[in-house]
Amino acid sequence: MMDSTSAVVEFKVNYEQTKHLDAGEAVHSDAFPAGGHMWRINYYPRGNRGIEEANDGSHVSIFVELLSKSRSAVRATFEALLIGKGGEPSLNLARRIGVHVFHTGNRKLGWPQFLRQTDLAKVYLEEGHITFVCAVMVLRRNPIPTPCSDIVKHLGNLLDRGDGSDVSFVVDGETFHAHRAVLAARSPVFSAELLGPMTEAAMPSITLHDITPAAFRAMLRFMYTDVFPGDDELGESPSEMVQHLLAAADRYALDRLKLMCAQKLWENVSVDTVVDALACADMYSCLELKSRCIGFVVEEKNFKKVVLTEGFLNLWQKFPSTIAEVRERVGT
């Protein structure tokens, strides 16, 4: 979701399971909010029944539907495009943009002849799926300008100043002041520790082990601002810092931070770094990162180089099940 008036959704459809549906049968996305209303995407693999130009079944249809009941008409734009092989969006053949006034008698907008089925399979089928990216933006009449949210700035300042802090953490001799309510709201682990019956709930100062001050500082700032550290904040060894931050995110059940760390490790994967990233993925249950790293390792151009690294030998000793997965992928 982009803001209160618009939303962008990725809609992935299993091609084999849906290509034989009858004309008029739709596959629906999950409902999503935009502009104070709920919407969904309807995809018709053999066209939308009742629309004459789509009845021959040669084209797929795509529509957006207003699910919410509204006393007044809702004016909105709808854009739909397909992601091609290789992950590139279609900017011409499979892209449509329209404006519509949604009301009780007409709650859908879309294109009955969005794309020929033959082109769909030939150009946009990737690993058995087709992927739509759809955007809905509700158009307001003469809106009163409002400033962007500055809650991130205010919470960041609250952390920096320490105003009203009611708990502190000692990490390797360094003290960090924080607010129980903020930490509990962000992390179920902190919620149990700081607000529940655990011993830490009554302690004004808590000593932490198995985490570095730099990683705890970065995690704490993320919990207040929801912002991932910039490259200049990751220190002289960014990859190592991200690994420490991933461990902290896993420890405190910060799923969004954990995925952001996984993405950062994946962005910097190479023959020299993939083994460390794979070990982290295995240790902290990052399944998507693990799958992508294994895919990187088994590529013909990488495999012989990776298996000769010292890190791969260590991986063999510490994570034999992961090595078994690598061997299985090589054999397929």
From TrEMBL:
Coiled coil: none annotated. Residues 8-136 form the MATH domain. It comes from the Eukaryota. Gene3D superfamilies: 1.25.40.420, Apoptosis, Tumor Necrosis Factor Receptor Associated Protein 2, Chain A (2.60.210.10), Potassium Channel Kv1.1, Chain A (3.30.710.10). Residues 165-232 form the BTB domain. One of its GO terms (biological process) is protein ubiquitination. InterPro entries: BACK_BPM_SPOP, BPM1-6, BTB/POZ_dom, MATH/TRAF_dom, SKP1/BTB/POZ_sf, TRAF-like. Pathway: Protein modification; protein ubiquitination. Belongs to the Tdpoz family. This is BTB domain-containing protein. It comes from Panicum hallii var. hallii.
